[in-house]
Amino acid sequence: MGRIGVVIVDGVGYRNFILSDFIRTLQNENNEIIIFSGLKESIYNFPESSAIKIIELAIFREKKVTWIFRKMKELAHLQRNKHYFAIADNLRSGYPKNNNLRAFITKLLIKFTSRFNSENIISIANSLQTLSYKNDNVVRKYFLALKENKPDVLFFTHQRPPYLAPLDYAAKKLGIKTCSFIFSWDNLPSKGRMAAPFDSFLVWSELMKEELEYFYPETKNKPVNVVGTPQFEPYVLTEYESSKEQFLERFKIDENLKTICYSCGDVSTSKNDGLYIETIAQAIIRGNIQPVNLIVRTSPAEDGSRFKKIKNQFPFIIWNFPHWEITREDHPEPWSQRVPFKDDVTDLRALLEYCDLNVNMCSTMGLDFMIFDKPVINSVFGNGENGLNNDQKYLRYAHYQRVVESGAVAIAKDKEELIEAINYSLENPKSRLNEQQELLKIQIGKPLKDTSLRIVEGLRKLS
After folding, report:
1. 246 and 380 in one domain?
2. pLDDT (0 to 100) of residue 83
């Protein structure tokens, strides 16, 4: 392939493409690797002999006019696809609740795009957005960095962050082919417009390819390769394996009891996590479920401080705070600068392999546990009328509605249903195994083994 530029934008991208087999696979094929990093250069620990070049990207900060045209593009995309419940929900929740200037402009754009939202309008908005930043000093730096290093392909490991658009623009000006990986299973049927009109795409599955071509009709004429996702590849790499004994020692587990893992979302979408943890803990105390170990893994996007009261109230709960550290707070999206350490991937893999049951609120973590044939329960008590954060709405999001309809997970809409589902799942751990395996085939699309090799082969086709 030659020279490949890899754009790492955040901590999850670092985990997926640096802590997987991707870089090693690129090196094994004698490719020259340049990492254009939205993270600080100091986080990379490649040996000097690797000869991997790292360029720390200057932080691009949008001017108001750039934001206006980007917002117009995103809102037009949402308006165009609001027959999807998740997109309509995001459109509703994003409606401004105050009256400052930005809110006023947003309201005008919502009104405008409710009538004018064709692909042609979106293309015009994208062109105006490009014109607004093309002479920006940071964009000039991007242009010079690409011109000096001139990769054959510039590979974006994420398609959404808005500060990727200037980098894609600079690459196109220099005749460099761009390719983007579709980051997550929910990004297409529930999120706003991707950052830029990339030249080609790598996707998880045939399902995701169909979604890409539906939401972005122009991609029907662009190369789209199905490769799986490196998100799960560490689970088949020996370097992240640990023994049952190591797991028991690491988490101070009672080996005579089964283990439930509650995995949290972040506070923006999973506000009821504390209630669900407390419900399980109280059920253990009262003997409503058999004696078990309870481990709580918090979201990597948070520091876990919102659970301080529960931590004090139930000292028997075992807590796993992901080993991710903020590397830079001076950033438009500081949460994106949380970076994982290798030992956290080892911890996560051990939880997946040795816990007996997972409970979460409609999280991707359900797929992680299914890979290890573990039963999954989704706790969703909030219905929009009972005073709780409405998390039942996520059951209607297209990507998760498919999970529910598959029968691969148990749904618990109140405390009694959650306790009943826990008892049943602990006694019948394989009851949904066939449904889980079918769901994984549809969502992930390819075997975990050799995921990075398929990604490299997909990039080779482009070069």
Report:
1. yes
2. 95
Do residue 146 and residue 79 come from a single domain? no
Domain at 201, CATH number: 3.40.50.2000
Indicate if 99 and 11 belong to the same structural domain.
no
Q: Give pLDDT < 50 ranges for the chain.
A: none
CB 52 within 8 A of CB 33: yes
DSSP lists the bridge partners of residue 181 as: 202
Asked whether residue 41 falls in the same domain as residue 142, the answer is: yes
Residue 55 dihedral angles phi and psi, to the nearest 5°: -115, 115
Are 157 and 16 a contacting pair, CB within 8 Å? yes
| One domain for residues 261 and 217 | no
For position 270, what pLDDT does the model report?
95
Closest C-alpha to 379, from 434, 421, 326, 429: 421
Do the strands 177-181 and 200-203 form a parallel or antiparallel pair, or are they unpaired?
parallel
pLDDT score of 337: 87
DSSP codes joined into one string, 310-334: HHHH-TT-EEE---EEE--SSSSSG
> What range does the domain containing 397 cover?
235-444
- Please report which helix (H) or strand (E) contains residue 35, including its range: strand 32-37
State how far the Cα of 107 lies from the Cα of 94, in Å rounded to an integer. 10
pLDDT score of 1: 62
The residue whose two tokens read 């398929």 is: 454
437 and 457 inside one domain: no
The number of distinct structural domains making up the chain is 3
Helix spans in 225-324 (H): 244-251, 273-286, 308-313
- DSSP labels, 415-463: HHHHHHHHHHHHH-TTTTHHHHHHHHHHHH-S-STTHHHHHHHHHHHH-
What is the rounded CA–CA span in Å between residue 211 and residue 134?
31
Task: Say yes or no: 193 and 51 in one domain.
Answer: yes
Calculate the CA dihedral of residues 20, 23, 27, 28 and round it to 10 degrees. Answer: 20
Number of CB atoms found within 10 A of residue 340's CB: 21
SS3 of residue 184 by DSSP: coil
